[in-house]
Write a structure and sequence with these properties.
The protein is mostly helical. It contains 11 helices and 7 strands.
């Protein structure tokens, strides 16, 4: 009996064309009804399974545009360079400067994380400490964990009065200075800083991110609030006819 050799190229072509696909779509493209056959051909490609939607979607690393956290979303379907949600949670928590509360991690990955965090803590891959009546998840490595706890204590010690003073100072700045200051505060807070500063100052997240990028690149306009050509067009002065 002759063995039919299937090429993985139809899978590559489908994923490059529509970026993501379900198992049913992959089987149709390959001309098979067997999941194992699809997985065998996918194994020859650098592919990822979504960590959202119960892993029902697939993509290629060459298609995904991962952000600084190693995450990528397409049509509200999320993929991670780190693999599963469990692995993603482990990496992100370990890399976060001040550890993570569950809601902070959820803001990063956009899916519920309480169960994965419990599993990681139970397995000893993460440590958790009670801070302000909530569990803070930190790296398992002792030295890294101590750094995260110290950073978190600094954040938690900031009083409401201090935040009010920060907002008051922010309100006295011009447009460019506000953007840069929000970007600076975001840098100090690490992962999730853009979102927190946007909420505090009532800004768009992208505005905070822009300020942060300008600071890091040194592209700061020293003499203008807006770039040349920005703002309202200059009104032409009318002269009285004699």
């Amino acid at each position: 009996m002759n063995t039919v050799h299937l090429s993985p190229e139809p899978l590559r072509a489908l994923l490059q064309a529509q970026k993501i696909a379900t198992m049913a779509q992959l089987k149709t493209a390959l001309g098979t009804s067997v999941d194992v056959t699809v997985f065998r051909k996918l194994s020859t490609l650098a592919y990822r399974t979504s960590y959202s939607h119960r892993g029902a979607y697939y993509t290629l690393d060459s298609v995904a545009h991962y952000d600084a956290l190693g995450l990528w979303a397409h049509q509200d379907i999320y993929f991670s360079r780190h693999g599963t949600l469990l692995e993603t949670a482990a990496v992100l928590v370990a890399n976060t400067p001040a550890g993570c509360f569950a809601d902070e991690l959820e803001a990063m990955v956009h899916v519920p994380v309480k169960d994965p965090l419990r599993q990681l803590a139970k397995a000893g891959r993460l440590e958790r400490h009670e801070v302000g009546g909530r569990y803070l998840y930190c790296a398992a490595d002792r030295a890294r964990r101590q750094e995260q706890l110290a950073a978190r204590q600094t954040l938690e010690s900031q009083s409401d009065e201090l935040q009010a003073a920060v907002v008051l100072f922010y309100s006295s700045l011009d447009e460019q200075q506000r953007r840069l200051y929000a970007g600076l505060e975001s840098l100090e807070r690490g992962h999730g800083g853009d979102r927190r500063m946007a909420q505090l100052f009532g800004l768009d997240v992208e505005t905070v991110a822009r300020g942060r990028r300008e600071l890091l690149s040194g592209q700061v306009l020293r003499e203008r609030v807006r770039r040349a050509g920005g703002g309202r067009p200059q009104a032409e002065k009318k002269r009285l006819k004699s």
